[in-house]
Amino acid sequence: MRSLYHHPLCPFSRKVRLVLAEKKLEFDEHVERPWECRPEFAALNPAAEVPVLVEEGGTALADSTAICEYLDEAFREPPLLPAEPMARAEVRRLVGWFDAKFHHEVTRGLLGEKVIKRLSQSRAEPDSRAIRAAFSAIHEHLDYIGWLTERHSFLAGSSLSMADIAAAAQLSCIDYIGDVPWDRHHGAKDWYARVKSRPSFRALLADHLPGVPPPRHYADLDF
Ligand SMILES: N[C@@H](CCC(=O)N[C@@H](CS)C(=O)NCC(=O)O)C(=O)O
């Protein structure tokens, strides 16, 4: 059986969980706290980061984009990268946007400062300037999602792609801590409602981390 080492509040792990679920692939779950740097885990991924997918046969794959693209190539249905090269480039640009820019400007400042520092028992206090900067940056990203989805249902066109998965993976982590200002961003909220209501999202909505309960609207499809 395929195994996934992941953390429920890791957006990159969520990306892989969503792709596995879209493709209806079964897997065993291992919740890993990467900051504990378990030697057995570091032996699977020298970067000691989640997610890690151990395929049937024992090969360990690391890095969410490498894993997601492998899954899309090995299990074609439904395709999450378009067939046409320029359309693929646009999906990959958006995956890069959310994995790098959104994560750096928003996820690290909110989730990282407010929750991960506490869970990992870091001795550093949450940085209130980083939190304020992230609260301010999230608006531009939500406006961008609203703009991208004005003409199409999904970020890179009329069907769900890896771009939607990367974006929803980041936003769902922020939503878990109740920090997404949905009421000021109706376009982004409509798009998120579409993604959130897919069966592939169910496992994420059932996440419940001890000591970090989600707000009530988190699992509500009509939030
Ligand atoms: N580029 C990697 C990034 C993965 C990553 O940053 N994972 C974080 C958790 S979200 C991690 O394991 N950090 C190590 C730590 O917290 O010690 C990917 O896409 O998989």
What can you tell me about this protein's structure?
The protein is of the alpha+beta class. The chain has a domain at 85-199: Glutathione S-transferase Yfyf (Class Pi), Chain A, domain 2, CATH 1.20.1050. 52% of the residues lie in helices and 6% in strands. It has eight helices and four strands; from the N terminus they run E-H-E-H-E-E-H-H-H-H-H-H. Helix 1 crosses helix 6. It starts with a strand and ends in an 18-residue tail after the last helix. 35% of the residues are buried. The mean pLDDT is 97. Residues 10, 12, 34-35, 49-51, 63-65 line the site of glutathione.
Précis, in short:
With 223 residues, this protein is α+β, with helices and mostly antiparallel strands. It contains 8 helices and 4 strands, in the order βαβαββαααααα.
What keywords describe this structure?
223 residues, alpha+beta, Glutathione S-transferase Yfyf (Class Pi), Chain A, domain 2, four-stranded mixed β-sheet, 8 helices, globular, binds glutathione
Which molecules are bound in this entry?
A: glutathione
Q: What CATH architecture label of the domain at 85-199 applies? A: Up-down Bundle
Residue ranges: pLDDT <50 for 5 or more in a row? none
| Helix/strand order | EHEHEEHHHHHH
The description of the largest β-sheet is: 4 strands, mixed
Shape: globular
Structural class: alpha+beta
Strand content: 5-15%
* C-alpha-based Rg, rounded: 17 Å
The percentage helix is 40-55%
Distance between the termini: 36 Å
Strand adjacency order, main sheet: 2-1-3-4
Protein name: Glutathione S-transferase
Keywords: Transferase
InterPro entries: Glutathione-S-Trfase_C-like (IPR010987), Glutathione-S-Trfase_C_sf (IPR036282), Glutathione_S-Trfase (IPR040079), Glutathione_S-Trfase_N (IPR004045), GST_C (IPR004046), GST_Omega/HSP26 (IPR050983), Thioredoxin-like_sf (IPR036249)
GO molecular function: transferase activity
